[in-house]
Amino acid sequence: MDRSNRLPGLLDDTVARDYSRKLRLFNSCAEPELREAVASLSLAPGMRILDVGCGTGEALQWLANDVGAQGLVVGMDLAAAHAAAARTSVSPQTCVLQADLLQPPLAAGSFDLIWSVNTVNHLREPLAALQRLATLVRAGGRIALGQSSMVPDMYFAWDSRLERLVNEAVRQYYRNRYRVDEGNLAAVRSTVGLLRRAQLRDVTVRTSMIERVSPLRPADEAYLLEAIFRGTWGERLRPYLSSEDYDELAHLCEPGDARFALRRPDFHFLQSFTLAIGTV
Question: In terms of pTM, does the model score above 0.90?
Answer without folding.
Answer: yes
